[in-house]
Write a structure and sequence with these properties.
Helices cover 28% and strands 35% of the residues. The protein is an alpha+beta fold. The model has no long low-confidence stretch (mean pLDDT 90). The chain contains 3 helices and 6 strands. It has one domain: Alpha-Beta Plaits (2-Layer Sandwich), CATH 3.30.70. The chain has a 4-stranded antiparallel sheet. A hairpin with a 2-residue loop joins strand 3 and strand 4.
Length: 123
């Protein structure tokens, strides 16, 4: 099964890390990425720029609006994602819980839908 893991983090928390703390976290993350790739578990992973660079787009009644920033005002913001292959939810949660930034943020784990359902969007 494929799972999308969304990494949420507080920008202020990460920015307050010392250079040494940031380097250690970054290296630990890159090492974990390498081990997941070697196991064939990591399909993709990318960091995102600051939520300050985001735009939220909506189309209502044929009108497009784009507002600056994320939709919700929260301390934690979406910082990146990783797409993994796991045998089941338990394994996906185990993989996500070992992601280094899970210790200072949160990782949302969601299974991918295999195609867009015909009867309704969400089951």
């Amino acid at each position: 099964m494929r799972f999308l893991c969304l990494a949420y983090e507080e920008e202020q928390t990460l920015n307050s890390l010392s250079r040494q703390e940031w380097t250690a976290l970054r290296n630990e993350t890159l090492d974990y990425v390498g081990s997941l790739q070697a196991e064939g578990r990591l399909l993709a992973a990318e960091p995102l720029q600051s939520a300050r660079t985001a735009k939220t787009v909506r189309v209502r009644n044929g009108q497009t609006t784009a507002t600056d920033g994320p939709f919700a005002e929260t301390k934690e913001q979406l910082g990146g994602f990783f797409l993994i292959e796991a045998s089941d939810y338990d394994e996906a949660v185990r993989i996500a819980s070992a992601w280094p930034s899970a210790r200072i943020g949160a990782i949302e784990v969601r299974p991918l839908e295999e195609g867009l359902p015909e009867d309704s969007r969400y089951r």
